[in-house]
Every structure is written in structure tokens, then in C-alpha cells.
């Protein structure tokens, strides 16, 4: 084995072999992927390609690694509590079970007794804090008065606040928050460009040294694994370039991340566990300093069990993968280093566009930023609606029998109520299907074994809206189809068969139900079949939402 040598091949040789395997299909369209940021993802990355895109790979890696506080990260899982006593009890229990920070979300501030503040003070000296306070007079902030000068110097962490507050020296309060941009539908380029613009705006009001000492940044991490790794690595490179533009050395900034709810769904919510695990591992490999996993039932009613599972997502990665012992596990990857550089260049260009338009506050005020983000969000929504992007259990492989739960996001998480989610239109479809009864069927014009792929596709297509069609027996003539549709009192039917069989049977149909056919049919042929009751065709790439809304409109109000 040690003596085996594999032959070396060039990219061009590999490409020729790939083109031969594609048998005439367009290499560029099939093998290359265009991201929402208009970046082309190559099917293969080589050392030569990396060296062309990144002028100094070692320097880029060094910048990324110098920005990290250590090889590991803080497990910062949020808790749910209704008063100070419950908060302390749950926090102490969580810390004993693997949580590594005192996490407080104060949408509804608690009343604290002096004894309770004393217990909290003992915790924050031993564990970093991650506080979200909605007002500068939140009673929890009195905990700092319980600390001696020596104890105050031991307190570390971050505070999310919109108002200036007094905090220990090692607690950062200058949040650069990219979550609003992300939750509004922004791309990675939007997030990074906006982060730099927010920093530039802050530095107009404060001197560089004092502002940089208080900066910390928060990112949501989505399910695009390699792209999200590159996003956070790109931020560290951008921060270094930003400081150089100010003639300053780049101090380290804590990067806190959390799983994005953009891909979370109320439908088949256990799939959210997989999304959370994927996003968390990318955040870890990217070098996050602190991370939060939202429970899989975050959009409905999180339980103690779901919170424990969310915490264990991080603990499994930390304890069993050993990546917490590696400062930059992604370093040197041809793909990731190239993508990191592309995000750096794209985000810096976008940052300059924002500055030329008047800066962060101005582009928000005029709607310039909102319009730009919205255009990209509509594009992303269209990809999901056409199934060019998948949401497992939502727009594909849906379970039509699954009940749809109403959203009951905790008051501490109101910022997520307005977050744009790709699953929302499909959840509305399923909610409508609860109120509507559509009698439907997949009609077999040939034996099942001949048309099973068509039948499976149609059933999967309709299941997205919670519609469960019957499967007819093999019907070999138009008379049999007419009798079946009438006897079953169908509102909607989809015919499955070859083009030859369709052309034989459809001209003899006489039905009142709405009828579609499986497979892509040209508009001229559909028009000629219209008098026989055929309205449309179902095929891969058909816009789901518009079509399923039309099918649901054929039904009757459910009893």
C-alpha cells in the first residue's frame, strides 16, 4: 500500500473525462453552480486555481487564525424562565450539563432580590455572560454592583443592548448585529458589507481604540455548509483590511453565532435537527467564539427535551469530533480558501457602495438596502417554489398527515417573529388544507409498474399541500376513466400515462372534475385538450405554490 502511486492528472484531463460522462450535456450548466450572491461554485478546485484567486494563501490563513480567541468555543444555549428564581435554577442545572455561559434574554425583565443577585454574581464570575437586555435599567444589571473590583475584572462576555450601559471592562457591549439583515432575507455579501458599514458608522462617533475594545459581532448560520464556513472566515479577513484602512492593528473581535431560522419549518420539525447540526458544524469549523442552537421546535413550543437535544448538538461536536482542539480546521482547503476570498472581495465592494450611498443609516432610511435585499430574497423564494432548492419535509418528501402547529415563539424571541423563512408559504398551504377537503385521485391509464415514477411524483407534489390522492386501478379506456371520475365524485384528477396513451384517451373524455396530466405538455396541446376537461400538466420544475393554491381552491370547506 505504501508503495502505490496514483497517476497525476490536470484539470483539463479531468474536465474531458467529465464531459464524456455527461454524454453531450452542457458542462457549464450541469457541473457549475451559481450562488445567490452570483458566485460560481466550481465542481473541482485545484491548487493552481486557488493560487490564481488568492494572492497569498498563507497570509489569509494567518489573518483568520489570529482573529480567533482559542481553538474551542463557548456553548451558549438559551433558557426559558418566568422569574428570577426559575432562571437561576435552570441556569445552574444547564451549566452542570454542558452549557458554558450564563445566557439571559430579557424581553420581560425579572424582579431580582438581593439574595438572587448574589447567587447570579457567583455564577458570572465563573462563567462568561451572554445577556440580551431591552432596556438600560433592566434589574439584572444590578448584579455588577454585587462584585468587588477584583471580581469585576474576572467577568467576561457580551451584552446585547441598544442603549449605552455600564458594564465590567471585559464585557463587550458594542454589538454589530447582522441578524436583522439575515432575517430580512439578505445574502452573505449583504451581511458582511452591512457589518463593515455599521462599524464605520460607529467609528464616526467614537475613537477607534475605545470602540474596537467594545465590538462584538453576531451572525446567523444557515445550512449552506461551505459557504457559511467561508462567511465567518471572510469576516476576519475583512476586519483586518478594515482596520488597515484606518491605519490600525486589528484587535480580536468575539464572533457569536446561532442557527438560522430561515430554513426552519413547522412542517416535519425534526428535520430542523439536521439543519441545526449542519449549521453548527459549519460555525465551529469557521471558528465561532460562541454558539447557540435553536431547538428543532423553536417555532412552536420548545420543551425541556428539545432544549437538551439542542445543547447536545454542540456537545457531541465538541466532545466527539475533537475539532475544539484545532484552531482552524478549514485552513488550506482549496474550495474554502477560494470562496473566502470571493466573499472578501464581494463584501468589500458592497461596503463601498453603501458608503457612497450615504452609509448604513442612510441606506436603511431611504429603503435602498431593503430593496436590494428583497430582490435577492424573491430569487431565493423562487428557487424553493420551483424545487430547485429543497426543504425536506416541506417542499419535498412531505408527510400530508402531519398536523400543522401554530407558531408560539417565546416573548424573548420576538425578533424572530418577522424573520423571513422559506417554509412560510408552504405552511400557509398546509393550514389552508386543514380547512378544505379536495377529493382527488391519481388516474392510471397504464399498469402501475409502467407509470409508477409519474404516480409517485404526483403524490409527492400534492402531499406538499397536505392532499392525499386516491390511486385508481388501471383504466384502459376513456369510458372507464369517465365512469371512475363520476363514481368517485372527484374534484381533481391527474392522468398518468405515456404521451401516446394520453393522446388516445383524452379526446374522448367527458368530465366535470378538474383534470391535469403528469408530465410536461406544450401549451398548444393543452389548449386542444381543454374541451375534454384537461387544464394543466404537472412536471419537475412546476411552480408549487401557485399550482397547489389552485388545486385547494377546487375543494369544499372541511367539516
From TrEMBL:
<dbReference type="InterPro" id="IPR006099">
    <property type="entry name" value="MeMalonylCoA_mutase_a/b_cat"/>
</dbReference>
<protein>
    <submittedName>
        <fullName>Methylmalonyl-CoA mutase</fullName>
    </submittedName>
</protein>
<dbReference type="InterPro" id="IPR016176">
    <property type="entry name" value="Cbl-dep_enz_cat"/>
</dbReference>
<dbReference type="GO" id="GO:0031419">
    <property type="term" value="F:cobalamin binding"/>
</dbReference>
<dbReference type="Pfam" id="PF01642">
    <property type="entry name" value="MM_CoA_mutase"/>
</dbReference>
<feature type="domain" description="Methylmalonyl-CoA mutase alpha/beta chain catalytic">
    <location>
        <begin position="172"/>
        <end position="443"/>
    </location>
</feature>
<dbReference type="GO" id="GO:0016866">
    <property type="term" value="F:intramolecular transferase activity"/>
</dbReference>
